[in-house]
Every structure is written in C-alpha cells, then in structure tokens.
Design a protein that fits this description.
The complex is a heterodimer of chains A (265) and B (76). By secondary structure, chain A is an alpha+beta fold. Chain A has eight helices and 15 strands. In chain A, strand 5 (78-82) and strand 6 form a beta hairpin. Chain A is globular, with a radius of gyration of 18 Å. Chain B has a single domain (2-71), classed as Arc Repressor Mutant, subunit A, CATH 1.10.10. Chain B has a three-stranded antiparallel sheet with strand order 1-2-3. The chains are: A alpha+beta (265), B alpha+beta (76).
Chain lengths: 265, 76
C-alpha cells in the first residue's frame, strides 16, 4: 500500500540516479499500525497509514524548507503555465488552489505546482515540484477526465480520505511548466468561494507582499528557517513585471477560463 | 530594501521580517530617508525633481508619509 501511494503521489517526480541524501521510512508493525521514520527525529509509532504518511510528507517538506534539500526556497503556492506565461496562485488552505490548477491542466496547460512551488534565487525563476494534485472528491464532478482516471484507479491516482491524489503526469506526460519569472500572481479568496466566479486586477504590491509572506510565514506543523534578506530581495526582483489578480467564486472552471483568456490576450 | 513589484513598490523591513506596499510618492520619499536629509530638504529635493507640483502639496505629502513610516517603525 505504501509503495502504491509513493508511486501515485510522486508519479510526476523526475527520476534520478543521485544517491539519496535524506531517508524516510514507513513500516508496518505486526499489530497492523504504522511506524514512520525521518532523519534526526523520534519515530512516530502506532499511527494509521494516513497519519504516518502525512507525518512523513510534512517532515520531508520541513527539511526542504529548512534548506537541507539545497539552496532553493519553497513557497506555499500553486501555479500553472498558460501559453508562455507563468501564473503563481496563492491563497489560504482550502481556497481551491489545487482544484483551479487541475482545471487549468484540463484546459491543456502545464502545472507549476499544487501546494509547493520552488524558487531559485540564483536566476529568479519559479519551477515545478513533482507532487500530486490533491482534489476533493466533490470537485471531480466537473472534471470527467480526472474522474475517469480515479474511477479506474489509473497509475498516478490514489483515493485517500475524502480526496483523490492525482499525479500531473497521469493527465499529460509533459506536465511540467518551464522555469521562468511569473507573469501574474493570482490571489484566490477562500471566503468568496460561494459567489459568482470572476477575476479582477488587484494591487501588484500587495501580491508581492503576499508571496513574500508565503515564504516567510510559518505554516502549521512546519518550522521554516529564517529566510535570508538576499533571498527576499531576489524574490521581489522576480516579481518586478508581475500583474496581480484577485479570483473568487464558486465555479473554478469559470475562473480557469477567465485566467486563460487574460493570459492569452 | 525597496523593490518595484508590477506598478507598485514593496519595502521590506528585514529587521522585522515585514513587507510594506508603497505608492510612487512614498517610494520616492523613502529614497531620501538616508539619515542625511531633513524633512524640509526632502520636500525641496522632490520639488526640484517634480517642478510642476505645488511645493505646499509636496510638503504635506512628505509630512504624511514620514508620519506613516514612523508609525510602522521604519525610521530608526
């Protein structure tokens, strides 16, 4: 089961022959519970598979955010590449970033990220992280292609509690957005999910602040090390030509269509 | 650290790990907050750069913006 989950959730991750620098373990005890092992931390024992998996994902994310995975910085954000334009999608947890990204992929666009986006300070570019898109079960009704993949338990899909994990590579093999500076930052508003769908131009500066905070903020359960000032400087530099949009509404397919139209103008 | 973001400016306060959005006027005033310019000399310098704007208005804007900077703890 753990091996299947790993294949499903990281189906899109690039293969590598590089030796592993960090090792995480998931073991099943004789009693049927799970044991999660991560570097330099106590074992998590007696856990369900879901809890053990979530623990390992967060620990691995924390290690990346703390710089053990290299010089890159990670943002809590999603994103997609429409045409040759990259859009960063930011918003609080539950705002619908993953669903919006899935709709943009279904419209033929490449993915930048679902919940994590990599920023390389050296060249001020954002690039994709090979993780699966987490889609709420009730959002699948508007996505027949993904719904059929999930129903068939196709490679790269995994049904968890109330949601499906869908590898971007299960939707299209060349799923990965090209590293570049963003054209736009889209702020997805969770509190406005029930109204009519739409997008509107917003404050570029506020979007820049929001993106900066997404690197600096301390997400629940993740200890983010202090980000160097020069990294913030490069992050803001990468946003010099950005346009900001606010997106809201109950229909993520309509928001995706509106963003696509704006990006292809 | 002052950086342009789209059509606006973002001032990052590294000591407090806080970022602030500035309009163009505030961004210009910030560039004179170097410890060497007094309030009046900032207004005079901006008046020289923007000769079409009323000097009285500039002095008022400088006062307002410096007060905001001070309230945000940006002037040390």
């Amino acid at each position: 089961m753990a091996a299947r989950a790993l294949r499903a959730m990281y189906h899109a991750a690039a293969t590598t022959t590089a030796p592993a620098t960090l090792r995480y373990g998931l073991h099943r005890s004789r009693a049927g519970s799970y044991i999660a092992a991560s570097p330099e931390r106590p074992l998590l024992t007696g856990a369900s598979l879901t809890d053990a998996w979530a623990y390992l994902e967060w620990r691995a994310t924390e290690d990346l955010l703390n710089g053990r995975g290299g010089d890159d910085v990670f943002l809590h954000a999603a994103g997609a590449e429409v045409g040759r334009r990259l859009m960063l999608i930011v918003g609080d947890s539950g705002a619908g970033k993953s669903t919006l990204v899935a709709h943009l992929m279904l419209r033929g666009h490449r993915m930048l990220g679902d919940d994590l986006v990599r920023f390389a300070p050296q060249d001020c570019t954002f690039s994709a992280v090979g993780r699966s898109v987490k889609i709420e079960a009730n959002a699948l009704k508007d996505m027949p292609l993904i719904a059929s993949l999930c129903a068939a338990a196709a490679v790269g899909t995994l049904l968890a509690a109330g949601c499906h994990y869908v590898s971007p590579a299960a939707i299209r093999h060349d799923w990965q957005a090209q590293p570049r500076k963003p054209w736009a930052v889209v702020l997805l508003e969770a509190e406005a999910r029930d109204g009519a769908a739409g997008i509107a131009r917003s404050s570029d500066g506020e979007a820049g602040v929001y993106v900066t905070e997404k690197v600096l903020s301390r997400e629940p359960g993740v200890e983010v090390g202090a980000v160097r000032t020069d990294v913030v400087s490069r992050l803001l530099e990468s946003l010099a030509e950005v346009a900001a949009y606010r997106a809201a509404g109950h229909d993520p397919a309509a928001i995706a269509e509106a963003l696509e139209k704006e990006a292809l103008r | 650290m002052l950086r342009r973001v789209g059509s606006e400016w973002v001032l990052y306060d590294a000591a407090c790990e806080r970022a602030h959005v500035l309009n163009l006027t505030a961004a210009v005033i910030w560039t004179y907050c170097d410890g060497e310019h007094e309030r009046a000399s900032i207004a005079e310098a901006i008046a020289r750069e923007a000769p079409g704007i009323d000097a009285h208005d500039i002095r008022g804007d400088v006062d307002d913006v410096l007060r905001r900077f001070a309230d945000e703890g940006l002037l040390r």
